[in-house]
Automatic annotation (TrEMBL):
<feature type="compositionally biased region" description="Low complexity">
    <location>
        <begin position="337"/>
        <end position="351"/>
    </location>
</feature>
<feature type="region of interest" description="Disordered">
    <location>
        <begin position="148"/>
        <end position="196"/>
    </location>
</feature>
<keyword id="KW-0539">Nucleus</keyword>
<feature type="region of interest" description="Disordered">
    <location>
        <begin position="332"/>
        <end position="352"/>
    </location>
</feature>
<dbReference type="Pfam" id="PF09739">
    <property type="entry name" value="MCM_bind"/>
</dbReference>
<protein>
    <recommendedName>
        <fullName>Mini-chromosome maintenance complex-binding protein</fullName>
    </recommendedName>
</protein>
<dbReference type="GO" id="GO:0003682">
    <property type="term" value="F:chromatin binding"/>
</dbReference>
<dbReference type="GO" id="GO:0006261">
    <property type="term" value="P:DNA-templated DNA replication"/>
</dbReference>
<dbReference type="InterPro" id="IPR019140">
    <property type="entry name" value="MCM_complex-bd"/>
</dbReference>
<feature type="compositionally biased region" description="Low complexity">
    <location>
        <begin position="179"/>
        <end position="196"/>
    </location>
</feature>
<dbReference type="GO" id="GO:0005634">
    <property type="term" value="C:nucleus"/>
</dbReference>
Length: 648
């Protein structure tokens, strides 16, 4: 593919799309547009140069250009019918022209033009209805600052690259080419100068609308986030339209559209519409009515109550699912299946890697001990951090390791100090994992906070709740602020839902007439004073002799010791994506014999305990960079368990 085509595809994808449309009008479902862009994105340099948009400002900077959108699907609306192409007639000359309706919502028609609606005329086989999926996508919830900063750095870098990529003469030449193409093919309505004027006019209107809507709209309710957004966060949700091309077999690894489910992390590549109909023109009302008839604006009425300046539209050309266990670095192309393939490491290289992981593990232990000087807690906390569900089997999730921290002790002054532990855990996680959130489980929050996602049939949308989070989100349940009071039915249902996530990693969305179950992997750590409200897979009691320091015994922050945090983040990322291997037969026999012996000594030991020991020994091995359980690690796990249970 030539560099000129690459530049056009990135800076003016509509031009390239229209060219393919003119060549393929006889077969509008051949997927050639998607295939072109997928081949383009297979080049890592090209893919990395595409700007990542998150805010209204980003949309303004990159209107009509190829951009990326990284988000979580919060809701999936009903499929939207649209006419693949529409027919426009010039009433003065009787000239007929056609436009592709994909990847756009509006088109400005001239005063002397009108839409021709002849769907049922068999002589016009070009006009056909298809559907597109409409998704409500929100910024990835609970994303920690170090991930956001890296995204901001990537976005700013791409903006600079795009500004410097071509000289002014090339830009002018492309503009001339676009204008010539528009005049020859009648595929665009207005020239670039008029278009820019209309954009500016619409920007003024949208700013005015923003001021008006800001007085009337509850933005938290409008944006529908599972947890309250930071006031400094400029990221906004998007309405994403995904077209029908993914139903067509594509070369390589095709992704069926059915994978686009709620709470999935996705990176879309597509276009933010360049302009909206000009409300100042006398033709505006007729145009809107006609577009509605064509099915191009067939949103529910509730979705039309706010301007695009609050929730922008995004037309997806292609997309990829994101691995929730990656540490936020998704800068790889669409054909990245070979990018993770490496040549077999030599024994020396393997040993060096193992030594490096052990060294970083000790750094993580030391970092935790800076805040909570309890070595036993540090060990189990590391297991919790690197845990993930690796299999769902017959209702059992394998790999789950929810953790309860009991801070109850007889020394009331010490217990008062221990109440800082949830905030300390929050601080540690903010620097090590990519997503975390602390929920204060007091009476008011439990009674009033939306915990379970619920379908609102009046508004035809899912009202988000605390548990509508992406996989690999660390959720801290802080019970230290709870006091006496009455828990309402909503609170009891919410606690039951949290328990299901904690133990079974499943969440039932409340669809009023019936629940819908979703598998998840939200790592829950519950801090309680005594018996917790939320059952967990494991429980650690803080040693009464331990000391805590909410600021750390040494001053450590992101700016002063960035290299340490980078190592810790990579450590977690590597271990969560390590493929664990079955143990050797000798180890398997040893484990089985040990469990039989343990049951003979204590008949009350259940299969659940055996499952717990296997999970714990697996996590212990993994934390040292080992991808299978050894006899030594099994025995170390048993010794660690004896220390834990002796404090309970």
């Amino acid at each position: 593919m030539s560099d000129i085509n690459n530049i056009s595809s990135l800076s003016n994808p509509y031009k390239v799309i229209n060219e393919f449309y003119e060549k393929s009008r006889d077969n509008l479902t051949n997927g050639v547009i998607v295939q072109h862009f997928r081949e383009l994105l297979a080049d890592n340099d090209v893919y990395s140069s595409i700007p990542l948009i998150e805010s209204i400002t980003d949309c303004d900077l990159h209107q009509g250009k190829l951009v990326r959108l990284r988000c979580m699907i919060q809701d999936v609306f009903e499929p939207q019918l649209y006419n693949v192409e529409y027919k426009i007639k010039n009433n003065q000359t009787n000239e007929i022209r056609y436009e592709l309706a994909k990847y756009k919502d509006y088109t400005n028609i001239r005063e002397n033009e009108e839409f021709i609606l002849d769907y049922f005329n068999s002589n016009h086989q070009q006009q056909q209805c298809m559907d597109r999926n409409v998704l409500y996508c929100i910024p990835i919830p609970c994303q920690n600052k170090w991930v956001s900063k890296r995204n901001d750095s990537t976005t700013n870098s791409n903006n600079q690259v795009n500004k410097k990529k071509r000289p002014i003469e090339d830009d002018q030449q492309e503009d001339d080419d676009i204008n010539n193409n528009n005049n020859n093919n009648n595929s665009e309505i207005i020239d670039n100068n008029n278009n820019n004027k209309k954009i500016k006019q619409n920007e003024k209107e949208l700013k005015k609308n923003n001021n008006n809507f800001g007085k009337e709209i509850d933005f938290e309710k409008l944006y529908n986030y599972p947890v309250p957004a930071n006031k400094e966060d400029k990221r906004v949700p998007f309405i994403v339209k995904v077209y029908d091309d993914y139903e067509i077999p594509q070369p390589g690894s095709d992704i069926p559209i059915s994978v686009l489910k709620v709470s999935e992390l996705v990176e879309f590549v597509g276009i933010v519409p360049q302009f909206v109909p000009d409300d100042h023109s006398s033709n505006a009302e007729k145009e809107r009515n006609m577009m509605n008839m064509l099915g191009l604006l067939s949103f529910d009425s509730d979705q039309q109550t706010f301007p695009e300046s609050l929730v922008p539209l995004f037309h997806c050309i292609t997309f990829k699912l994101l691995n929730p266990y990656e540490n936020g670095n998704h800068e790889f192309p669409f054909n990245s299946t070979t990018s993770t393939t490496t040549t077999p490491a030599t024994q020396t290289e393997q040993q060096q890697k193992l030594d490096s992981i052990k060294s970083i593990r000790q750094e993580l232990v030391d970092y935790i001990l800076n805040y909570i000087n309890d070595p036993l807690f540090a060990e189990y906390f590391i297991f919790y951090i690197i845990s993930k569900v690796y299999s769902y089997n017959s209702g059992i999730c394998l790999g789950n390791f929810s953790l309860n921290i009991d801070i109850n002790c007889k020394d009331k002054e010490k217990q008062k100090q221990f109440k800082d532990i949830p905030k300390i855990i929050e601080r540690i996680l903010e620097n090590v994992v990519c997503r975390s959130y602390r929920f204060e489980a007091n009476i008011d929050n439990l009674n009033d906070f939306n915990i379970i996602p619920t379908k609102n049939y009046d508004e035809n949308r899912i009202v988000s709740g605390l548990l509508q989070l992406a996989k690999n989100t660390h959720l801290i349940i802080d019970e230290t602020t709870i006091s006496e009071g009455k828990l309402e039915s909503q609170a009891l249902k919410g606690l039951a839902a949290i328990r299901n996530v904690s133990m079974l990693q499943k969440i039932e969305y409340d669809f009023i007439y019936h629940p819908i179950e979703f598998q998840t992997d939200i790592q829950i750590i519950d801090v309680s004073v005594g018996k917790p409200l939320v059952d967990c897979f494991s429980k650690v009691k803080i040693n009464p002799t331990a000391t805590t320091n909410i600021n750390g015994t040494t001053t450590i922050d992101m700016d002063q010791n960035q290299s340490l945090f980078t190592r810790l983040q990579k450590y977690v990322n590597i271990l969560q994506n390590t493929v664990f291997q079955p143990s050797d037969s000798q180890v398997t026999d040893h484990i089985q014999n040990d469990f039989v012996s343990s049951r003979q000594k204590d008949p009350n030991l259940s299969q659940e305990i055996f499952h717990y020991w296997l999970t714990l020994s697996r996590l212990m091995s993994l934390s040292f960079g080992e991808n299978k359980i050894s006899i030594a690690r099994w025995e170390s796990m048993k010794a660690l368990e004896n220390s834990r249970t002796s404090l309970l």
